[in-house]
Write a structure and sequence with these properties.
The chain is an alpha+beta fold and 281 residues long. It has one domain: q2cbj1_9rhob like domain (Jelly Rolls). The chain is built from seven helices and 13 strands. It has helices spanning 6-15, 26-41, 60-66, 69-79, 107-110, 247-260, 265-271; strands at 17-22, 83-93, 101-104, 117-123, 134-136, 147-149, 161-163, 173-174, 181-186, 191-193, 202-211, 223-228, 236-237. The strands form three sheets. Strands 1-9-4-11-2-12-13 form a seven-stranded mixed β-sheet. It has a four-stranded antiparallel β-sheet with strand order 3-10-5-8, with no helix packed on it. The protein is globular, with a radius of gyration of 17 Å. The relative contact order is 0.25.
Length: 281
């Protein structure tokens, strides 16, 4: 995958979302899904919620994915040459799961100094209408909209929030992806997803990329992974794991989690998925 064309960049600027973008062939993505399942089976069938945040810091092959040029080349077209990975998580909806994501904007909860942030959502399985794919409202990323709390126990959104007033469903578009494809969406884009009420699993790997000169608006010093270009010294830089769930990597990860929660909502989002498999979209 090369950098985005001018037409693709224009479409993203207009719509706040771009899909489908090919990344991996079906054989390779199936192998990665199998590796993830092996990792989960040793831990009650899934990664514990506390590990399913910045998971690339404890699994080397996920570290490689967040650095993959097939993902970063399109991201560079949108964010420029200096890029940090702010967070990464698996968003896994098992069959017949009632959990859902109400309409929301990520920027409401990320707390960055400006909205130069893009999520790459890499489909490890098919993601379609039946199994609860992400849904978006194109061109809804121009401004921050009001959110309210929500007490529904199946709501998996950051801080339990949702957009208010609700979105007109007629404006929504389904982000349908085949295994190995990805979507890109702006952090201000209104998006959500319905429950997976069918017999097929839906799993994706969401990587949150930000321009490297951003900082946390509250002034706190958090950490991020430099994946391309130059460090601007706004985050402490994270390092590659020594091995899969290596003790040293796990110890560093635990320290990062303590330092970043609270108040960093990028991590709160995934933590709220406990004990069920996660999904923010």
């Amino acid at each position: 995958m090369a950098r985005l064309s001018e037409n693709q960049r224009a479409a993203f600027e207009r719509d706040g979302v771009l899909f489908p973008i090919p990344v991996y062939d079906e054989e390779r993505i199936a192998l990665m899904q199998s590796r993830l399942e092996v990792l989960g089976r040793a831990r009650s069938g899934q990664l514990p919620p506390g590990l399913n945040v910045k998971v690339h810091l404890i699994v080397p092959w996920l570290w490689n994915i967040v650095h993959d040029s097939r993902i970063l080349d399109p991201i560079e077209s949108l964010l420029g040459p200096d890029i940090l990975c702010w967070s990464s998580s698996f968003f896994d909806k098992p069959p017949f799961s009632p959990r859902f994501i109400p309409w929301h904007q990520d920027a409401k909860y990320w707390g960055l100094t400006r909205p130069d942030a893009v999520t790459a959502w890499v489909a490890f399985t098919s993601s379609d209408v039946e199994n609860g794919c992400m849904r978006v409202v194109p061109s809804s990323h121009a401004r921050q909209l009001p959110h309210v709390g929500d007490s529904d126990p199946d709501n998996m959104a950051p801080s339990g929030g949702k957009l208010s007033p609700a979105v007109d469903e007629a404006d929504a578009v389904d982000v349908v992806l085949a295994p190995g494809q990805m979507s890109l969406h702006h952090q201000m884009l209104v998006h959500g997803s319905r429950p997976n009420m069918y017999g097929r699993r839906r799993n994706g790997f969401a990587i949150r990329y930000i321009a490297a000169d951003l900082a946390h608006a509250g002034g706190a010093r958090y950490s991020a992974t430099l994946v391309r270009g130059r460090d601007h010294d706004t985050f402490d830089l994270e390092i590659e794991p020594e091995g899969e769930l290596h003790p040293a990597a796990l110890k560093r990860h635990a320290g990062i989690m303590r330092r970043n929660r609270p108040p960093s909502p990028a991590f709160e989002s995934a933590a709220r998925t406990s004990p069920q498999p996660a999904s923010t979209s």
